[in-house]
Amino acid sequence: MNATTGSSTSVASPSESAFNPYTIIGPVVLGGLVNASLFGCLVIQTYVYYANFAKDNRAIKVMVAAVL
């Protein structure tokens, strides 16, 4: 308790209570790049499927579109 004001104050050190956003930015950016790359692969595979298998059953084409 503080003797002059009668209130208790606790001061935490900056390393204990401060949120450091720089520790999370790297993994988020890396995850976004991996996500974008994998989505690009999925789009290319879908395009190649529709280009090479145009005579497939409509149900299979709809299923591929649903996965995309």
- Say how many strands there are: 0
* SS summary, helix count: 3
What percent of residues adopt helix (DSSP H or I)? 55-70%
Give helix and strand order, one letter per element, not per position: HHH
Stretches with pLDDT under 50, minimum 5 residues: none
Q: Could you tell me the strand content as a percent range?
A: under 5%
Q: Strand pairing plus helix content: what structural class?
A: mainly alpha
In this structure, how is the largest beta sheet organized? none
Query: Which of globular, elongated, flat, extended, rod-shaped describes the shape?
Result: rod-shaped
Could you tell me the radius of gyration in angstroms?
Answer: 27 Å
Number of domains: 1
* Ends apart, CA distance between termini: 62 Å
**Global mean pLDDT:** 86
Molecular structure report:
- Keywords: Membrane, Transmembrane, Transmembrane helix.
- The chain crosses the membrane at residues 24-50.
- With 68 residues, the chain is mainly alpha-helical.
- It has one domain (20-67).
- 66% of the residues lie in helices and 0% in strands.
- It contains 3 helices and no strands.
- The model has no long low-confidence stretch (mean pLDDT 86).
